[in-house]
Write a structure and sequence with these properties.
The protein is α/β, with parallel strands linked by helices. The protein has two domains: 16-157 and 305-322, Rossmann fold (3-Layer(aba) Sandwich), CATH 3.40.50; 161-299 and 331-346, Dihydrodipicolinate Reductase, domain 2 (2-Layer Sandwich), CATH 3.30.360. It has nine helices and 16 strands. It has an eight-stranded mixed sheet with strand order 10-11-12-9-13-14-15-16. The protein is globular, with a radius of gyration of 22 Å.
Length: 347
């Protein structure tokens, strides 16, 4: 026997679009006295609740302005765990989830991003797609076209842009001349559907593009496979039209975790640690360098990112890391990957 639909009452100004067999009600866009109701919560969902997606679910469930409605998860045990922990429902497909949500996080393997994102956008959902946006520029164009057609926001999960360290750098970096970034991590099979450039280096690519704010003039890159079928260690040297040079070292076969950046400017030097949210500033005084510790108010970057995303959805605003910036980082990451692979073939 089918599950009966519950009785429910909608406040004045609400419009019911659909009542699902599960009993969940999808509400259309509504206005109350000419403005969106201040008492409403953003109805959120997550596709993929694995290692990272579980934290998206946790944070949506905890945010005061959100209601975690449901998830799409292939693993039965994990789906039962997440639904039990956060009192949400499991849906069979992204399209079904789109019917009850306004905002959805896409936290599946990168090679599935486009396949998952397009039906969600067709269903009218605003998306936070974990980095990288996808695996190819053709897929990026598909996602952008679907977002434009549906009038939807796409935010890309370049999480370091929401790290308190980045908030400091955005104010302190004015004339970068030379940048070094190191991102090292122990090997983990998760994420190896792409090489280390798309897996890890893209974090620093996005940060550096945002800080330098200049077109790329030249790119050089090398890399090697170690434990997977694609590059696990990579180095890229990026020269910008304004003269700034960035050197990025990335490895996912390290014995330790490192997420550091150093930026050299006229008369000063900044050294920041994204992982520990700490750093110092060296400034020139006469012939000496004076060191100062940087006061950084620590916080969870993913929480800050999802808070920002849901507020952008609520206010129909522009995300800090939108699809275009995500596409620019992807384009440069693909260029670096191709240079590495071309170099290996030539060797």
């Amino acid at each position: 026997m089918g599950r009966s639909r519950p009785l429910f009452f909608l406040p004045k100004g609400f419009r019911a679009v659909n009542v699902l067999p599960s009993g969940l009600v999808r509400l259309g866009r509504y206005r109350l006295d000419g403005a969106m109701s201040e008492i409403s919560k953003i109805r959120c969902g997550v596709v993929g609740t694995g290692y990272l997606g579980q934290h998206h679910a946790r944070i949506y469930a905890a945010l005061e302005n959100c209601d975690l409605v449901g998830i799409v998860e292939a693993d039965d045990a994990r789906a039962e765990e997440i639904c039990g922990k956060y009192a949400c429902e499991r849906f069979a497909s992204p399209a079904e989830l789109a019917a009850v949500c306004q905002a959805v996080s896409v936290v599946v393997p990168t090679d599935l991003h486009c396949e998952v994102a397009v039906p969600l956008l067709a269903g009218g959902c605003h998306l936070l797609i974990e980095k990288p946006l996808c695996t190819s520029l053709a897929e990026a164009e598909q996602i952008l076209a679907a977002a434009k057609k549906g009038g939807c926001i796409v935010q890309v999960g370049h999480i370091e842009h929401y790290n308190p360290v980045m908030a400091y750098l955005e104010n302190a970096v004015t004339r970068p001349q030379y940048i070094t970034a190191d991102r090292l991590a122990p090997f983990n099979p998760r994420g190896t559907e792409v090489g280390v450039v798309l897996d890890l280096m893209i974090h620093d690519i996005g940060v550096i593009l945002a800080l330098v704010r200049s077109p790329v003039a030249r790119v050089e890159a090398v890399g090697v496979n170690v434990l997977s079928g694609s590059e696990d260690i990579a180095n890229a040297r990026i020269t910008f039209e304004n003269g700034c040079v960035a050197n990025i070292n990335t490895s996912r076969v390290s014995q330790k975790k490192v997420r550091e950046i150093r930026i050299f400017q006229p008369s000063n030097y900044l050294s920041l640690d994204f992982m520990n949210q700490a750093g110092h500033f060296l400034r020139k005084e006469g012939i000496e360098l004076v060191r100062e510790e940087i006061p950084i108010e620590k916080d969870e970057p993913l929480k800050l990112e999802l808070e920002s995303f849901t507020e952008v959805v609520r206010n129909a605003g522009e995300p800090k890391v939108g699809a275009e910036l995500g596409k620019s980082a992807l384009e440069l990451a693909i260029q670096i990957t191709e240079l590495i692979r071309d170099g290996r073939r030539a060797g």
